[in-house]
Amino acid sequence: MATKPRLFIAQELRKDLEFFLTDTQAHYLCHVLRMAAGGFFLAFDGKNGEFECELSVCGKKQTSSKVLRQTRIFEKAPDIFLLFAPVKKDKTDFIIEKSTELGVSKIVPVITRRTISEKVKKERYICQAVEAAEQCRRLDVPAVEDVRTLEGVLKVWDENRLLYYMDETGNGRPAAEVFAEDAGKHLPSAVLVGPEGGFDEEELEFLRRQKYAKGVSLGKRILRAETAVAAALSCWQAICGDWK
Ligand code: SAM
User: What would the pLDDT profile of 44-93 be if each residue is shown by its tens digit?
Assistant: First the structure.
């Protein structure tokens, strides 16, 4: 059975609600998928679960739909943030897509001392996160924050949130060991991955002194930032998250 198209709708959904699609969503259903009025698709709003909807009218001006029934109840994603230093455009695209698929609840671009690509396109990241959430059947979309410096983020850090920083210098402890310590505790958490040039010594020194921070090694090989994001989040989901 072909999977029904799935859209994130940025308004609260409930049975029998009639709502308008955005122009992009209307174009996708009516013109790309050539769905006619009466066609069915799935929609989620990030709060109330997933619903089966019927395309009512593929209008020139407006395209409306109606919520028929709820198909899944909402379930919260684990409380895990990703802090990452933006890298080259296509690699950052990969980071946004994979971290969304891997269930992060928030994406925080951070500028570190060795960050090269400081150009951050928040709107682009949001669109990519929505698309990835629609594809991977999530019931919510990660929040994408404005870019800030790592220092700025840590200055106001909630000390109840564990910060696992990926330390490629060999001073981190093995990921499986570090995450296993916190397995089952459902603690608010975050993963931090550095830029192509890695963290500088002062940044690592500062992180090592913070009681909420834990240095994590992803093995002997030096991974690309985007690989480290996927590896760290996969390991965390398997040991502390919702892969159980
Ligand atoms: N400075 C590194 C070097 O020696 O070439 C490169 C940094 S790496 C491309 C980018 C980021 O990925 C690092 O800052 C770190 O956060 C993470 N990373 C890469 N390999 C890692 C490893 N083996 N263990 C922990 N983190 C790693």
Answer: 999 999 999 999 988 778 889 999 999 999 998 899 999 999 998 889 99
Instruction: Give, using CA atoms, the residue closest to atom 12 of ligand 1.
Output: 225
Write the DSSP symbol of residue 227. Answer: H
- Residue entry with tokens 């570190």: 112
Could you count the other beta carbons within 10 Å of the beta carbon of residue 146? 8
Ligand 1 pocket, 218 CB below 6 A? yes
Whole-prediction pTM = 0.95
Residue 218 CA, ligand 1 centroid: distance in Å: 8
Provide, rounded to the nearest whole percent, the portion of the chain with pLDDT above 90: 91
Q: Are 235 and 106 in contact (CB under 8 A)?
A: no
The Cβ of residue 23 has, within 10 Å, a number of other Cβ atoms equal to 11
Cα–chain center distance at 8: 14
For 179, list phi and psi in degrees, rounded to 5: -70, -35
Size of the chain in residues: 244
Encode pLDDT of 117-131 as tens digits: 778 899 999 999 999
Residue closest by Cα to atom 21 of ligand 1: 168
Distance 52 CA to ligand 1 centre (A): 43
Q: In what helix (H) or strand (E) does residue 76 lie, and over which residues does it extend?
A: none
